[in-house]
Amino acid sequence: RCVEAFCIYFQAGRVEEPYVSITKKRQMPKDGYTEEIEKEVGQAERKLCTHRSAFSRASVIQAFLGSAPQLTLQLYICVLQQEITAARSICMLLSLLSIVYGALRCNILAIKIKYDDYDVRVKPAAYLCIFLWRSFEIATRVTVLVLFSSVLRIWIFLVVLVNFLGFCFYPWILFWLRKSPFPENIEKEFSRVGTTIVLCLLTFLYAGINMFCWSAVQVELSDPDLISKSQNWYRMTVYYILRLMENAFLLLMWYVYKTDFYLYVCAPLLVLQLLIGYCMGIFFMLVFYQFCHPCKKLFSSSITEALLSCFKLPYFICQHHKSTLLTGKAAVKSPENTDETRGSTKTIDSQNRNINQSVSSNA
After folding, report:
1. Of 246, 298, 260, 283, the residue nearest 120 (C-alpha)
2. What is the dihedral of CA 222, 183, 217, 208, to 10 degrees?
3. Cβ atoms of 201 and 190 closer than 8 Å
4. Total number of domains constituting the chain
5. What is the DSSP letter of 22?
6. What is the distance of C-alpha 320 from the center of its chain?
7. What whole-number distance in Å separates Cα of residue 219 and Cα of residue 109?
8. Angle at which helices 192-212 and 43-62 pack, to 10 degrees?
9. Which domain holds residue 295?
């Protein structure tokens, strides 16, 4: 595929192509208006776009199924040996850059899939925000897993298994709850068994990505394209809150069960640095979606509004629960109040009768 892409690139423009296709893309709305632009796409350019999208997907697969385990293993060896050699540091740096690049390509791929009708242009500031966001998030996550596994080697398998199986079965659970038909349009040559294998591999990759960072591409088996095109702020908020709580819990367990092996490390300072590093990743994520996202004009609500609504939701639930309790109590007390009012009206009527009788007798 790589050799063919180079051959097509160097031969492009030398021979006139027999036919071209016309694609229509809409620009980002300016002052409330959008313009549709027609563009002629030749056969060579179409093939290069196909190769480029394939390279993007391959970089994501290589990053999270190859470089992520490699980085975790090399860092674990460094912790046990209390030594970082030059060769190992270069290997860890290349692995981290590979993971960050794969996560960055995953973000750009998700944007282009969700907004396929628009001409998306990603600015350098957006690339910088994504790079910093993914670097802080992935580096702190890998460090937390390595520290926890160095003191509780058996329990780390349970943590990894729960995370992996949870994210792997989550798309299937949603697919089962929605009672959607089985997807048949993935590939015409695939049978039902082959389609199931492809879907299992897709959810396997989705779980591998979410083990280390938030997957920008959300798998949705009920969608014809197998990818959710809606911007679900609530799911992202819940993910980062739970992930931050999990990282804090794992660091707490490491701090409690750490041995004399870590006497050379200032444990409280390291815990604080890792938590701050993860929060820095969340900060750059918020900056990206609030200011640098290439399609922020198409959002129905900004991420700050979504976060405020997420935090206001428990308050409204509590208020609704209190109002229902007060309504129930008022309904319980209402018969007693009616009895009391009836008794008071009877007393007033008897007093009026006595007054009338006395007045008539005096008359």
Report:
1. 298
2. 110
3. no
4. 1
5. E
6. 29
7. 13
8. 60
9. 1-316
Helices within the chain (DSSP H only): 2-11, 43-62, 68-81, 86-114, 124-151, 155-177, 192-212, 233-257, 267-287, 303-362
Q: Is position 354 within any domain?
A: no
Domain assignment of residue 23, yes or no: yes
Residue 147 in domain:
yes
Angle, alpha carbons 117-119-121 (nearest 5°): 140
Q: Which of these, 269, 314, 306, lies nearest to 285 by C-alpha position?
A: 306
- For residue 87, count other CB atoms closer than 10 A to its CB: 9
- The region that residue 5 occupies, defined by phi over 0 for left and psi between -120 and 50 for alpha, beta otherwise, is alpha
- Cβ–Cβ < 8 Å for 195, 184: yes
Residue 330 lies inside a defined structural domain of this protein: no
Q: Which of 68, 51, 75 is nearest to 215 (CA)?
A: 68
Per-residue pLDDT of the chain (363 residues; tens, 9 = 90+): 888 888 888 887 777 666 667 777 777 777 667 777 777 777 788 888 888 888 888 888 999 989 999 999 999 999 888 888 899 999 999 999 999 999 999 999 888 888 887 878 889 999 999 999 999 999 999 999 999 999 988 999 999 999 999 999 999 998 888 887 877 766 666 777 888 888 888 899 999 999 999 988 888 887 777 888 777 788 888 999 999 999 999 999 999 988 777 777 788 899 999 999 999 999 999 999 988 888 888 777 667 776 676 666 555 556 655 566 556 555 555 544 445 444 444 444 555 555 455 545 543
* pTM, two decimal places: 0.78
